[in-house]
């Protein structure tokens, strides 16, 4: 009986390993959570980066917009920045939300790389990111004129991915 007690921790470890292996083999790492797609965008107001005044993420009735969660500490955000500048040049309205970032760092980031955003908002505590279901930055949401989230893109925007999002807005 004492021998079986000695093997109990080893048996428990093997059981846990089997459970984790079973989960990992069935999980597709490319699957992105898109829980809010097809649902109304959260109606939130956040502080403006420049003034600190509360501003809505989107104004009801305005046309389709892109909402981009980014941060100065995020290397992929720097990689996608030229694409955001290209979208601005095309006349696409992009609202930037600085996710869990110090406003001074965000301002320095935008001063160094350029400002592609029609509105620059601050989500210092990550509350808006939580409401949107942000899993990491950068993430971009396409919100239709009716306020419904049409699409979500996780990771840096590329020209192809940006075009895919814009086609969904038309």
Q: How would you summarize this macromolecular structure in one to three sentences?
A:
The chain has 170 residues and is α/β, with parallel strands linked by helices.
Question: Can you describe what's shown?
Answer:
With 170 residues, the protein is of the alpha/beta class. It is 40% helix and 20% strand. The chain is built from five helices and seven strands; from the N terminus they run H-E-E-E-H-E-H-E-H-E-E-H. It has helices at 2-26, 75-89, 103-113, 127-132, 159-169; strands spanning 45-47, 54-56, 65-70, 94-99, 119-123, 139-143, 149-154. A five-stranded mixed beta sheet has the order 5-4-3-6-7. Strand 3, helix 2 and strand 4 (94-99) form a beta-alpha-beta unit.
Order of helices and strands: HEEEHEHEHEEH
Query: Strand arrangement, largest sheet?
Result: 5-4-3-6-7
Oligomer: single chain
The average pLDDT value, as a whole number, equals 89
- As residue ranges, the low-confidence spans are none
Tell me the structural class: alpha/beta
Total helices: the number is 5
Tell how many strands the DSSP assignment holds. Answer: 7
Distance between the termini: 71 Å
Biggest sheet features: 5 strands, mixed
Strand content: 15-25%
Q: Indicate the overall shape.
A: elongated
Please bin the fraction of helical residues: 40-55%
- Using only C-alpha atoms, the radius of gyration works out to 21 Å
Describe the SSE topology.
Elements: H1 2-26, E1 45-47, E2 54-56, E3 65-70, H2 75-89, E4 94-99, H3 103-113, E5 119-123, H4 127-132, E6 139-143, E7 149-154, H5 159-169
């Amino acid at each position: 009986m004492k021998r079986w007690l000695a093997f109990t921790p080893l048996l428990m470890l093997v059981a846990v390993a089997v459970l984790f292996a079973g989960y990992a083999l069935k999980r597709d790492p490319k699957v992105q959570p898109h829980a809010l797609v097809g649902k109304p965008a959260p109606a939130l107001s956040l502080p403006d980066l420049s003034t600190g005044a509360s501003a809505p993420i989107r104004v009801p009735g305005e046309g389709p917009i892109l909402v981009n969660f980014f941060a100065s500490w995020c290397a992929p955000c720097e990689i996608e920045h030229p694409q955001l500048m290209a979208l601005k040049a095309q006349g696409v309205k992009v609202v930037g939300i600085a996710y869990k970032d110090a406003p001074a760092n965000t301002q320095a980031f935008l001063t160094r790389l350029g400002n592609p955003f029609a509105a620059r908002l601050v989500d210092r505590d990550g509350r808006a990111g939580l409401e949107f279901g942000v899993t990491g930055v950068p993430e971009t949401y396409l919100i239709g004129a009716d306020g419904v989230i049409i699409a979500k893109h996780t990771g840096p925007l590329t020209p192809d991915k940006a075009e895919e999002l814009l086609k969904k807005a038309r």
